[in-house]
Specification:
By secondary structure, this protein is mostly helical. The chain contains four helices and two strands; from the N terminus they run ααααββ. Bound molecules: magnesium ion.
Length: 114
């Protein structure tokens, strides 16, 4: 059963996965798992050859990030809400408000000319 919202489905799947194994997410182990998956994603991306492998590792990062949130007491609803808030915030950024500089999209600094 899917909600039609991939993020919500992944969060619900992660919650059910832990529940099926009788696991209450604990912060230290969730952070360890998250760090391992980030490292694997970095390695896959730097290798760059196997696109499917990069996508798999990115998905592992998403799942373990959800685990970190669960261990921190963040509800699925709060997580989903925050992800859409970030998307809306990024959607609102334009060339007038932001600029790509030093490898990152940054807020423009308006220089006053008095
Ligand atoms: Mg992995």
């Amino acid at each position: 059963m899917t909600s039609g919202d991939p993020l919500r489905d992944l969060a619900e799947s992660t919650r059910a996965f832990y529940e099926r194994f009788g696991v209450t997410p604990e912060l230290q182990s969730c952070l360890t798992n998250f760090n391992e998956e980030v490292f694997e994603l970095v390695q896959a991306a730097m290798d760059g050859e196997n696109k499917q492998h990069i996508a798999e590792e990115a998905a592992d990062v998403f799942v373990t990030a959800i685990g970190v949130c669960m261990a921190s007491g963040i509800s699925i609803e709060a997580l989903v809400e925050q992800v859409y808030a970030v998307a809306a915030k990024n959607d609102a950024k334009t060339h007038e408000t932001h600029v790509f500089k030093d490898g990152k999209i940054r807020r423009r600094v308006n220089v006053r000319r008095d």
